[in-house]
Specification:
alpha+beta, Trefoil (Acidic Fibroblast Growth Factor, subunit A), 3 domains, four-stranded antiparallel β-sheet, about 25% helix
């Protein structure tokens, strides 16, 4: 290596940050998470993997991510003269945060020459003076780039960033994207705050489940065929996507192919029969009889406003035969069938989300949408369960065998 190249390499290492890639979840979450921020049009630090070798000694894989330096701000904002701040746990611009002074503890990270937090105090004054009784901030857009903020806030929720700003007022940079001045005011346009992600190593917790699954598969190549290994990973991907819709309180869109209702316990799906009165479970094949359409129950609230929301009644209609999934109350709910009568009371179902799996060590309901829900009769309160190869209803209970995953029918994969 030439002297010039050595100097360039040394400079690159001195201006980047790295961390040991010892936790597989953190290893994957950072580069994937930051790339998702990129796709959302938000400022993000570049992040990749690096193998570190010093004087011939291999220090293994590291995460290499871009620091908050002037090159970053020139690339993302075209402005290197704004003030940068780091928001840590409990720090915020609004009253009622962890400290009596909501700005106490916020650290000035440089760029601009004025580190007295005057621009943050100007923003906080506007927010707190105009705070509405319903805890909204109608004047927020005067000091905060709201397009940036809403995208940022939404992505933290989608990525399940339990240690971020949205859920823990932590791990966030604020950049005042203007040329810093000594006495800034909101009215003069001296305050334009934008959020930058930070500390996202604990995001995307479902990645750990997938990584563990892939690692297990890789360790037992003789036990599973390649087709079986691919099917397992694809199934996990479908569950991850269903979990994303669940976080949005929505179901996957019912497109031309309809939706598939797959049981967690057996992997079987609910299938309608050509006779029009029977339903049963079967292995996933992608046939039209396994495709369903979920809409608001007639007389219930508009389905567009209640997708996936607990206790809102829906009807489940066969795409192949036009019949409705039905639980007969007069038969003590011992059988799930299908009927052609559109307005029958037994056609109503609710889909309470299964958002917490206590035996998996999940952290809590808000951050652990699993992609599963119960298929519960609105008429009898019982949940449909796919167990073995027959139909069973749990009498008013919600048990593990009754979890189902709702998947787009055009995305089915055998196995």
């Amino acid at each position: 290596m030439t002297k010039r190249r050595k100097l360039r390499a040394a400079w690159a290492l001195s201006t980047s940050r790295s961390t040991t890639a010892s936790r597989t979840t953190a290893t994957s979450a950072r580069p994937i998470g930051y790339d998702i921020f990129r796709q959302a049009g938000l400022p993000y630090p570049r992040c990749n993997f690096a193998k570190v070798i010093v004087n011939g000694q291999d220090y293994g894989a590291h995460i290499n991510f871009e620091p908050m330096k002037k090159a970053f701000f020139q690339r993302k904002f075209g402005n290197t003269q704004g003030n940068l701040y780091e928001i840590e746990h409990g720090e915020d611009l609004v009253e009622g945060s962890q400290h009596m002074d909501p700005l106490k503890g916020i650290s000035f990270e440089g760029n601009g020459p004025f580190g007295d937090l005057a621009d943050l105090r100007a923003a906080a004054a506007v927010l707190n003076m105009t705070k509405a009784p319903n805890n909204t901030f109608p004047s927020a857009s005067q000091a905060i780039d709201m397009d940036n903020f809403l995208r940022y806030f939404s992505l933290e929720i989608l990525l399940k960033h339990f240690d971020g700003y949205a859920l823990n007022t932590n791990n966030r940079y604020l950049y005042n994207d203007v040329v810093a001045v000594k006495n800034p005011t909101v009215a003069a346009g001296n305050v334009r705050l934008k959020s930058i992600p930070s500390g996202i190593d604990q995001t995307l917790p479902l990645l750990k489940k997938m990584e563990d699954l892939v690692n297990t598969v890789a360790k037992k190549p003789s036990d599973l065929s390649l087709t079986e290994q691919v099917a397992i990973v694809r199934k996990q991907l479908r569950i991850v996507r269903a979990g994303a819709y669940q976080l949005l309180d929505e179901l996957p869109p019912t497109l031309g192919e309809g939706l598939v209702l797959r049981g967690r316990a057996t992997g079987a799906v609910i299938e309608a029969s050509e006779t029009g009165t029977e339903v049963h479970q079967a292995g996933l094949s992608g046939t039209p009889a396994q495709k369903w359409e979920i809409t608001a129950m007639p007389g219930s609230v508009n389905y567009a406003a209640v997708k996936g929301v607990e206790n809102q009644k829906v009807v489940i209609k066969s795409k192949a035969y036009g019949t409705y999934l039905h639980v007969d109350k007069l038969a003590q709910g011992t059988k799930v069938c299908a009927v052609k009568e559109e307005g029958s009371a037994g056609n109503g179902f609710v889909l309470p989300p299964m958002a917490y799996l206590p035996w998996t060590g999940s952290r809590g309901k808000d951050m652990t949408a699993t992609g599963y829900c119960w298929l519960q009769s609105a008429e009898t309160g019982q949940s449909v369960a796919l167990v073995g190869m027959g139909w069973f209803l749990w009498m008013g209970l919600r048990e593990r065998p009754s979890f189902i995953c709702i998947e787009p029918g055009d995305d089915w994969v055998s196995g």
